[in-house]
C-alpha cells in the first residue's frame, strides 16, 4: 500500500535540510579567501580597502564640494570638510550595496565547477560576497570616525546607533545578490546592465544631496529607494548627531527582510536549472 510503513519515506534529517548555518564554516573560509585573495600580489595589500574609499571621497569632495559648492544643510556655517564627511558617510553605505550588485551577475557564472562537477551549496556564494563587502565596509568606517573626530572635534554619541543601519542594508544587498546571481546565469548581458544601473542608483540614492533638495516631482521616487533612507540616516548619525527615525527604520527593515526571503526563494527555485545552461 502507498501509505504502509515499509514504503513511506522517512522525514529528511536535520543535517539534510537546506540552511546557511549548516555551512557556516565553509562560508567563513570562502569569505576570508575572498578578502585576502583580492589583494594578493599587490604592493599595498589590504591597505587598498582603506585607501580606495579615501581616494573616491577626495574626487567627489573636490567636484561636488568645491567646484559645485554643494551643501547638505544649506547653512553658511557648513564647511567643505563637513560636506566631505557627510558625503563619505553616504558613500560608505552605498559602496557596500554597489559592490555586491556589481559582483552578483558573475557569482555563479564564473564558478561553473561548483555547478557541474561537485555537490556545492550554491546559495552561499552571494552570502560570501556580502560578508566580504561587510569586512571592507568595517575598514572604511575607520577613516570616517577618525575624520569626524579630527575635523569636528568629537564623534556624536549617535554614532553608536550607526551599526543598526547594517541590518536592512545587508538584507537588501543579499536579496539583490541572490536575484541577480540567478538571473545572471540565464541573461549573460546582465553584467553590462548592472554597470549602468549602479551609476543610476548612485545619483538616485541621495548620496550627493539631501533628500529635501531633490526636485519635488522626483522626490517620492527617490524616497522610495531604501538606499536614500540609509544614506541620509548614515549622515545624520555619523556627522550631524541627529537621531534615527525609528518608524521609517521599522518599515524599511520589514520590507528588506521580505525582500531577503524572496531573493533566497528565487535562487533556490532556479538553481536546479543552472547546470543545463552552464
Could you describe the 3D structure shown?
- This protein has 278 residues and is mainly α.
- The longest helix has 29 residues, at 124-152.
- Helix 2 (48-67) packs across helix 3 (80-103), helix 3 packs antiparallel against helix 5 (124-152) and helix 5 (124-152) crosses helix 6 (166-186).
- It has helices spanning 24-38, 48-67, 80-103, 112-116, 124-152, 166-186, 190-203, 219-223, 226-240, 246-270, 274-277.
- Judged by helices, strands and strand pairing, the structural class is mainly alpha
Order of helices and strands: HHHHHHHHHHH
Give the overall pLDDT as a whole number: 86
The portion of residues assigned to helices is 55-70%
Poorly predicted regions are 1-17
User: Quaternary state, please?
Assistant: single chain
| Major sheet attributes | none
Strand runs, count? 0
> What is the overall shape?
globular
- The rounded distance between the terminal residues' Cα atoms is 41 Å
Query: How much beta, percentage-wise?
Result: under 5%
C-alpha Rg, in Å? 21 Å
Number of H- or I-type helical stretches: 11
Summarize the structure.
This protein is mainly alpha-helical and 278 residues long. It has helices spanning 24-38, 48-67, 80-103, 112-116, 124-152, 166-186, 190-203, 219-223, 226-240, 246-270, 274-277. The chain contains eleven helices and no strands.
Topology:
Blueprint: H1 24-38, H2 48-67, H3 80-103, H4 112-116, H5 124-152, H6 166-186, H7 190-203, H8 219-223, H9 226-240, H10 246-270, H11 274-277
Helix pairs in contact: 1-5, 2-3, 2-5, 3-5, 3-6, 3-7, 3-9, 5-6, 6-10
Amino acid at each position: 500500500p502507498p501509505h504502509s510503513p515499509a514504503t513511506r519515506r522517512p522525514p529528511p534529517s536535520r543535517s539534510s535540510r537546506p540552511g546557511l548555518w549548516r555551512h557556516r564554516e565553509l562560508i567563513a573560509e570562502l569569505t576570508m579567501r575572498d578578502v585576502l585573495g583580492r589583494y594578493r600580489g599587490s604592493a599595498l595589500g589590504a591597505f587598498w580597502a582603506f585607501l580606495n574609499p579615501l581616494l573616491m571621497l577626495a574626487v567627489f569632495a573636490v567636484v561636488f564640494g568645491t567646484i559645485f559648492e554643494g551643501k547638505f544643510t544649506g547653512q553658511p556655517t557648513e564647511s567643505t570638510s563637513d560636506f566631505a564627511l557627510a558625503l563619505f558617510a553616504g558613500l560608505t553605505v552605498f559602496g557596500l550595496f554597489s559592490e555586491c550588485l556589481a559582483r552578483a551577475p558573475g557569482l555563479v557564472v564564473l564558478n561553473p565547477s561548483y555547478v557541474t562537477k561537485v555537490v556545492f551549496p550554491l546559495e552561499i556564494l552571494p552570502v560570501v560576497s556580502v560578508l566580504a563587502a561587510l569586512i571592507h565596509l568595517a575598514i572604511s568606517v575607520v577613516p570616517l570616525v577618525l575624520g569626524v573626530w579630527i575635523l569636528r572635534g568629537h564623534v556624536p554619541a549617535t554614532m553608536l546607533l550607526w551599526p543598526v543601519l547594517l541590518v536592512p542594508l545587508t538584507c537588501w544587498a543579499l536579496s539583490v545578490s541572490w536575484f541577480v546571481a540567478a538571473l545572471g546565469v540565464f541573461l549573460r548581458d546582465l553584467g553590462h546592465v548592472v554597470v549602468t544601473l549602479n551609476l543610476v542608483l548612485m545619483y538616485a540614492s541621495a548620496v550627493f544631496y539631501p533628500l529635501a533638495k531633490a526636485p519635488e516631482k522626483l522626490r517620492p521616487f527617490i524616497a522610495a529607494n531604501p538606499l536614500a533612507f540609509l544614506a541620509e540616516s548614515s549622515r545624520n548619525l555619523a556627522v550631524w548627531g541627529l537621531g534615527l527615525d525609528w518608524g521609517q527604520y521599522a518599515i524599511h527593515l520589514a520590507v528588506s527582510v521580505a525582500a531577503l526571503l524572496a531573493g533566497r526563494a528565487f535562487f533556490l527555485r532556479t538553481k536546479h536549472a543552472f547546470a543545463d545552461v552552464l
